[in-house]
Specification:
heterodimer; A: 272 residues; Rossmann fold; eight-stranded mixed sheet; B: 413 residues; alpha/beta
Chain lengths: 272, 413
């Protein structure tokens, strides 16, 4: 594993690289590496067993520079294009969780020729009437100033899950983790606060363009992105077979709670 | 020497909550169910509050203060400009301080420039124009992303100032509020423009913006002590960076006062209103119980490097004003002064000695306080505290800032 910062058309982009093989780009979410933790978690290490993994930090997060002019879905997606160009990645597998899944989908509908296979885990990004994506900003405000129970429940299957406790402990965690979490919340505020929350109304009608093989995964107990979104992605992405993989008992961060199960589905999908 | 200016600030809280509100509801903000609004009991409520401010003007306060909050029980004033319009018409003296319009919540800052110009005309040049980015709860009320709100805010302030000072029509080439034609009618009465006040915490970045533009600083804090003195010193040193000298009227703070003939009477008459305010109105805002939205992560926004410092120097278990449990706690918080005219005078004089600020913005009505005691308290203050405090402030300012006796630049007079 190595960490470095590259220059993508004048903007710093921090990334972690690991493994060898065909390239795979990983885009993180809130409860994830970069979004909270500074290094690869067992799930990401699993991806690196058969691929060269490029795990980018989103703009303004964990060492990546801010976007200069704006933070619209178009701006973020264009920054990804610039980053992939700077890395010399012509074609690659693209995997994203949560907001990372959203921007993976945004990229794939614009540049389908660059994406060999697309995998989304608990992906935000779609507007599904009556199925609002949860309010991570409200839940990030602790109760009694110290209690992150509702945030943990939103991002994991239960507030008491050991991974949930590790990522969002009560009172305060490690200072670097706290600051990363704050930077990720800030990225979320720039990109996904308005319209509420974390969607681009145009995206659902554009999914047909992402015709590469696709794999849609969601935790059965996702408290942030309702399961209806995974089904909508599966219906809209021509290469998904029309069906989402629902991980029984897992929450929004299904890949952290069930790295084995999610890793197996992905390994199977990527090797097919 | 110009004495301290004494303003009456009304928050216009909702006074008809059920007795078990604190047990049953986790917040007084954003999601507090509006089925609790009692239409019958609330008839005439806003008129009563406006009349209290008109009374403040009549008994000699230097001005009346309003602010903007949304979807809460703490302040029933989502549009302070509407109340300001009523005051402009009903009063003939006293500044009208709108502190302030929350610019990122307004679709276009030009509308604020226009409404403030109308108020300045309607009041014959008595408007003080406050601008604020909005505190934590407003992020949720209007879906205002907090991260970009600072940048939007300062651009909006620039646009408004230009709309008042630069001959129109002109094109404003802003990043967030580009406008082809800026040309508001009417123009404000005051020249070059109404005084501009900016509420802020202690962020040096904000203080620098305030200093650079010649605006005045209102310290957003309800509790006062060493931190208030520190804020005054920081502001003075930031002004120094811009070649300016501190002048007390460039800074203001908020205090609450409940004045009775004796300390005992003040306590007895204010007790219900104060505890209603602390436990209900501050729930969700400045109270640990429930989910308070005012100081949380990213709401309101500060840059990540300042967040690290905030974490280092703050303790999330420290009690807030709303966690006050008894009169002794309340006394220590130096937020709500309760007592006889002598007691309140002594406390405020000591505060000015410690933090010499030129604008005291005083809240008399708290929670569900009765109209008659609110007026009695205001009157005791105006007749038996204010005259002594004005005299004392002149002595304090002259002693601490001898240069004030020399000529001051026009901008800060």
């Amino acid at each position: 594993m190595s960490t470095r910062v590259i220059d993508a058309h004048g903007r710093k982009v921090a990334l972690i690289e690991a493994g060898s093989g065909e390239p795979l780009v990983y885009l993180h979410g809130f409860a994830d590496l970069h979004g909270a933790m500074g290094e690869l978690q067992p799930f990401h290490e699993g991806l690196a067993k058969n691929r060269r993994v490029y795990a980018l930090a989103m703009p303004g997060v964990n060492g990546s520079g801010d976007l200069a002019e704006g933070w619209s879905p178009e701006d973020v997606t264009f920054s990804l294009l610039q980053t992939f160009d700077a890395l010399g990645l012509q074609q690659f597998d693209l995997v994203g969780h949560c907001t990372g899944g959203w921007f993976a989908a945004e990229f794939a509908v614009r540049h389908p020729e660059r994406v060999r296979k697309l995998a989304l885990i608990g992906a935000a990004g779609l507007f599904v009437s009556g199925e609002l994506i949860g309010d991570v900003f409200m839940n990030a405000q602790p109760e009694r100033g110290v209690d992150y129970k509702t945030l943990r429940r939103m991002l994991f299957s239960s507030s008491d899950h050991p991974v949930a406790q590790q990522y969002y402990p009560d009172i305060r965690g490690d200072m670097d983790v706290e600051v990363r979490r704050y930077e990720m919340l800030r990225f979320g505020s720039f990109t996904g606060f308005k319209p509420p929350y974390f969607y681009n109304r145009s995206l659902i009608d554009r999914l047909y363009r992402a015709s590469m093989p696709a794999c849609v995964i969601a935790g059965e107990k996702d408290g942030m992105v309702p399961l209806a979104h995974a089904h909508a992605y599966a219906r809209g992405l021509p290469g998904s077979g029309g069906k989402a993989h629902v991980i029984a008992g897992a929450g929004h961060a299904a890949h952290l709670e069930e790295p084995g199960k999610v890793g197996e589905i992905l390994a199977d999908f990527l090797q097919r | 020497m110009r004495p301290v200016e004494l303003y009456c600030w009304h928050f216009m809280s909702y006074p008809h909550l059920p007795k078990d509100f604190d047990e049953k509801y986790d917040t007084g903000w954003v999601t507090v169910p509006n089925k609790l609004w009692d239409k019958e009991k609330s008839k005439g409520l806003l008129r009563q509050y406006i009349d209290q401010l008109v009374y403040a003007s009549q008994i000699g306060f230097d001005g009346m203060v309003l602010n903007e909050h949304h979807q809460n029980i703490y302040g029933l004033m989502p549009s302070p400009n509407i109340i300001a319009a009523a005051l402009a018409h009903a009063t003939r003296r006293g500044k009208i301080v709108v502190l302030g319009n929350l610019l990122p919540l307004h679709m276009n800052p030009l509308r604020v420039a226009e409404e403030y110009a109308m108020l300045d005309n309607m009041s014959d040049g008595r408007l003080i124009a406050g601008f604020a980015p909005g505190s934590g709860p407003e992020t949720f009320n209007y879906d205002i992303p907090s991260a970009p709100s600072r940048e939007n805010f300062w651009e909006a302030v620039d646009l408004i100032r230009e709309a008042w000072t630069k001959p129109g029509p002109f094109a404003y080439e802003g990043k967030h509020y580009p406008l082809r034609y800026v040309n508001p009618w009417p123009q404000p009465t005051q020249r070059p423009h109404p005084p501009i006040w900016i509420p802020s915490g202690r962020s040096k970045g904000t203080l620098r913006q305030i200093a650079r533009h010649g605006y005045s600083y209102f310290l957003s804090s309800r509790s006062h002590g060493a931190a208030t003195a520190k804020a005054q010193q920081t502001f003075a040193s930031v002004l120094g960076e811009y070649g300016q000298k501190y002048e007390p009227h460039r800074m203001g703070i908020l205090m609450s006062c409940c004045v009775g003939e004796t300390d005992k009477e003040a306590q007895e008459k204010s007790e219900e209103g104060i505890w209603y305010f602390l436990k209900n109105c501050l729930k969700g805002h400045q109270r640990r119980e429930g989910r308070q939205l005012t100081f949380g992560p990213g709401v309101p926004y500060i840059p990540p490097e300042e967040w690290r410092d905030f974490l280092k120097f703050s303790d999330p278990t420290t009690p807030l004003l709303g966690d006050t449990e008894d009169w002794d706690d309340l006394e220590r918080s130096a937020s709500i002064l309760v007592g006889s005219p002598d007691t309140v005078y002594e406390r405020l004089a000591a505060l000015l000695e410690q933090a010499p600020v030129g604008n005291l913005l005083l809240q008399f009505h708290l929670g569900n306080m009765a109209d008659d005691f609110t007026r009695e308290s205001m009157n005791l203050f105006a007749t038996r505290v204010a005259p002594r405090l004005r005299e004392k402030s002149k002595e304090i300012f002259a002693r601490k800032f001898p240069y004030l006796n020399e000529s001051m630049p026009e901008a800060v007079k």
